[in-house]
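> call design_seq(struct)
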């Protein structure tokens, strides 16, 4: 008998394997289906919480603001405001619902046919993906979204941003509100030219400075694009607002005076005036500081990137604010009171407002589906999670800063009050009006860089100064942070240190600054020769 078994061992083992495959497959299908269901619930809950947590904060701020304002309101106007608010909320809910249904429909169209084919392949033993393979693929895809992707986002933290705490970039100046660091090259073959024209970068308040050092180790960092060209590169960074009362209560004038002191210190170090470069909201702050007149003598060039110059021209955010009942378009509804009694604008809530504005593309189910499709297996292989995707999501999840109310009020007024016909901004500093014509009068060069598909700071918003003065511009493909991510790679098609466009008519911000430095050096050399 043993001899007969040994002679037919291969056949018996094949039969047992076939038996196992056929009768254990339903159990594997059930296990994978359970895992897929569990992961989908976990994933959807996580994506929904990104809306629910800020919503609860907004509800608390709303209640506090209404306590203060309710008794001062006309009853009929109050009733109408609440009716309008109900309609506003219903419109957002409807957009969310329509976008979610569209996503479910897209998913069904893509996967229902695959599911039917898998069932038929299983029943008739056809080649191709069977039901077990289909369910396993769905399970792995959902596992990628709910477990693997979040871990990749968390793991990218050491590679994202500046990490000034590690001491690699020296602290060169500080005030009660800000720290100024020199950003050194990541390219060890580059030496900073001490006599070169320096640049001071003002990052956005709410989005933080680290987006401007996206992935330095991957040679993708806006700030390091300057440093790696030997440019003396400095960045102004906020002190922690929750620990810094002076920042919590900062005035616009203090912002300008701090910037003046920093530029003066940098100019002393290098012997040349500073190029002041603001990114996003930092650009608007930089322009307002210059227009106040306080930076005369220490700043001789301006550079702004995707900066909102007239927020009322924004089709997105300004349109969203105009749809909000006037009573509730007020800073009180986004103000947080700290333990010391000082009030600041809640950065997380502001980030939530941007998501609500774009609810059709940022609804929880839509975002969940988008990430799931990005991470779906292809050709039988699991999708690779790029460092770019991980770093972007790390930034979006962790880099929302609270703001001083004065800065929030500045942006709020810019998005609600247009620039006047003579070029006067809706902001005053030191009791002075701010007018774009001052830049032309002082003959200060200014480069405006903008994103052609920027849905946060649209082209019309960034280019508003062109209605009043001649300004050099540089359009970049993609959106709001492309200059800090895609195009900060020196090998990219629109590298920041190059000229680009059909006739090379546009200069990237680094190229612009390098050309300014060369022109300044040539002028100084000519003047020295003439004096001799």
């Amino acid at each position: 008998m043993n001899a007969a078994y040994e002679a037919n061992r291969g056949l018996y083992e094949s039969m047992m394997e076939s038996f196992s495959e056929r009768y254990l497959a339903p159990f594997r299908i059930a296990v994978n289906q359970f895992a897929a269901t569990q992961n989908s619930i976990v994933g959807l809950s996580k994506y929904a919480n990104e809306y629910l947590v800020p919503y609860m904060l907004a509800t608390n701020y709303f209640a506090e603001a209404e306590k203060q304002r309710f008794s001062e309101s006309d009853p009929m106007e109050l009733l109408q405001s609440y009716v309008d608010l109900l309609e506003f909320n219903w419109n957002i809910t409807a957009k969310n619902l329509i976008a979610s249904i569209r996503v479910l429909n897209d998913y069904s169209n893509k996967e229902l046919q695959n599911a039917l084919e898998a069932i038929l392949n299983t029943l008739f033993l056809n080649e191709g993906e069977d039901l077990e393979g289909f369910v396993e693929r769905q399970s792995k895809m959902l596992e990628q979204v709910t477990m693997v992707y979040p871990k990749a986002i968390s793991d990218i933290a050491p590679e994202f941003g500046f990490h000034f705490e590690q001491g690699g970039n020296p602290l060169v100046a500080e005030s009660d509100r800000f720290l100024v660091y020199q950003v050194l090259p990541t390219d060890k073959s580059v030496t900073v030219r001490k006599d070169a024209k320096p640049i001071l970068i003002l990052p956005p308040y709410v989005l933080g400075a680290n987006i401007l050092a996206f992935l330095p180790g991957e040679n993708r960092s806006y700030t390091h694009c300057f440093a790696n060209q030997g440019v003396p590169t400095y960045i102004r960074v906020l002190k922690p607002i929750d620990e810094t009362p002076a920042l919590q209560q900062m005035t616009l004038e203090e912002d300008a005076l701090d910037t003046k002191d920093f530029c003066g210190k940098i100019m002393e170090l290098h012997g040349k005036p500073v190029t002041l470069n603001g990114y996003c909201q930092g650009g608007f702050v930089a322009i307002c500081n210059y227009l106040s007149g306080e930076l005369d003598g220490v700043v001789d060039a301006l550079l702004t990137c995707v900066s909102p110059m007239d927020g009322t021209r924004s089709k997105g955010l300004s349109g969203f604010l105009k749809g909000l009942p006037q009573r509730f378009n007020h800073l009180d509804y986004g103000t947080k009171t700290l333990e010391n009694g000082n009030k600041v604008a809640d950065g997380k809530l502001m980030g939530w407002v941007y998501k609500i504005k774009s609810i059709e593309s940022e609804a929880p189910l839509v975002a969940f589906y988008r990430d799931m499709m990005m991470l779906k297996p292809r050709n039988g292989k699991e999708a690779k999670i790029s460092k770019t995707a991980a770093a972007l999501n790390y930034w979006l999840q962790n880099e929302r800063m609270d703001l001083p109310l004065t800065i929030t009020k500045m942006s709020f007024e810019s998005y609600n009050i247009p620039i006047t016909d003579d070029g006067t901004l809706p902001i005053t500093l030191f009791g002075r009006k701010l007018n774009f014509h001052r830049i032309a009068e002082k003959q200060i060069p200014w480069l405006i860089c903008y994103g052609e598909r920027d849905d946060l700071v649209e082209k019309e918003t960034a280019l508003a100064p062109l209605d009043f003065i001649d300004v050099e511009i540089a359009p970049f493909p993609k959106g709001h942070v492309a200059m800090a991510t895609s195009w900060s790679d020196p090998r990219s098609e629109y590298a920041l240190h190059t000229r680009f466009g059909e006739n090379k008519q546009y200069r990237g911000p680094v190229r612009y600054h390098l050309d300014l430095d060369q022109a300044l050096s040539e002028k100084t050399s000519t003047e020295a020769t003439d004096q001799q």
